[in-house]
Specification:
By secondary structure, the chain is an alpha/beta fold. 32% of the residues lie in helices and 15% in strands.
């Protein structure tokens, strides 16, 4: 599959780039995508949730009423879960939500997500550019020239570029990542992928 290369004015430069079929042209594996996104979201969870159980609460341990004959539920001390303000039964405890996923499955998931984007014609290849200083207005102008202003898109850089990152930082629907940071979630979360020409050369060699 071939794509045209555009400049920051949104005009076709006449250059063509070829997408690697082993990355952008595979049959997507939805289950691998599900597992990779699930792991990504799980790894973001802090797992610090906690509620006090009966043995952890302060309060008298005196039995409040008779065991039988009261007409209501049995209750022990004032921390009984039966009572308002009592302890919680089987409440959440701190835990680690992360889990292991094989590298080959993660790679398959990422290639599947990229293949979906290629099928949807949601990949825009642009000539490499940079800013002398952070300029959000210039960044918005480039998005407008590429007809993606207002859409949710991700810019894929070959390496860190502080000025581009700072230019896009205040835009809610825009994210800037480098090729190593481009994961399945980032690909699927964006409606359009804006890929630098040099970034595409790196992505095409990911499965080697």
């Amino acid at each position: 599959m071939e794509l045209s290369v555009y400049n920051i004015q949104g005009k076709d430069t006449g250059k063509k780039v070829t997408l690697n079929d082993s990355i952008f042209g595979i049959e997507p594996n939805d289950h691998a995508i599900y597992l990779d996104v699930k792991q990504h979201m799980a790894n973001k969870r802090q797992g610090t949730h906690k509620s006090k159980e009966r043995s952890e609460m302060s309060g008298s341990t005196r039995k409040l009423g008779r065991q039988k004959g009261g007409g209501g539920a049995r209750r022990g001390d004032i921390n009984s879960p039966v009572l308002v303000g009592g302890a919680r039964v089987f409440g959440p405890k701190p835990r680690d939500y992360s889990f292991k996923l094989n590298k080959k499955v993660k790679a398959l998931a990422r290639f599947s997500a990229l293949s979906y984007k290629a099928k949807e014609n949601a990949i825009i290849v642009v000539e490499d550019f940079s800013f002398e200083a952070p300029k959000t207005k210039e960044f918005i102008a480039i998005a407008k020239n590429l007809n993606i202003e207002g859409q949710k898109f991700t810019v894929v850089l070959p390496e860190n570029n502080k000025n581009i990152y700072l230019s896009a930082r205040n835009l809610q629907r825009v994210s800037v990542v480098t090729v190593p940071e481009l994961n399945t979630y980032k690909v699927l979360d964006a409606k359009q992928l804006v890929v630098f020409e040099s970034s595409l050369a790196v992505i095409n060699n990911l499965n080697e």
